[in-house]
Amino acid sequence: MTISAISMKNFCSDQYAQQHVTIWMGQSELDVLTCVFDDNYTPGSRTLVFDQDSVITGGNANEWFTLLLDTPFEYDGQTNLIIDIESLYCSTIYVWGWETGAHRNLYTYIPGSPTGAPDTEIPHLQIHGSLELECTTFGRIKTLFQ
């Protein structure tokens, strides 16, 4: 699958200017994240896919906003997908999330920190791109997030 954009569901009706937003994507063999960001990636898979000086997120409550990637990401559909979002001055992007029951999110309030704290809530997320995966792959991706 070639991922070309991601969307998140806005939590509130305000817009926020996120400063210097970067998004990295990669693959992982792990089902539960460790506290060291780089240790979660399959070696050589971490790829910078989005790098903007300023991004406006949000809009109306409960509406989706989309970030088009600067560089599409080739996801193999076999391993777990990592989406790593960092903003220089804002500690969060206000979006809806859900409880997964396992540590599938890692966060920090310090940009550039090599470590973070595990969390069991992940954002509502849509992944956009071209599909070249087996039909059963999406059932597996969905069950990993539940």
List keywords for this structure.
146 residues, mainly beta, three-stranded antiparallel beta sheet, 1 helix
Number of helices: 1
Instruction: Identify low-pLDDT runs.
Output: none
Quote the distance from N terminus to C terminus. Answer: 21 Å
Name the average pLDDT: 81
Strands of the widest sheet, in order across it, are: 4-1-10
Structural class: mainly beta
Outline, from the CA principal axes? globular
Structurally, the number of domains stands at 1
Q: Strand fraction band?
A: over 45%
In helices, the fraction of residues equals: under 10%
| Major pleated sheet | 3 strands, antiparallel
The count of DSSP E runs of length 2 or more, i.e. the number of strands, is: 10
Q: From the alpha-carbon coordinates, what is the Rg to the nearest angstrom?
A: 15 Å
Spell out the helices and strands N to C: EEEEEEEEEEH
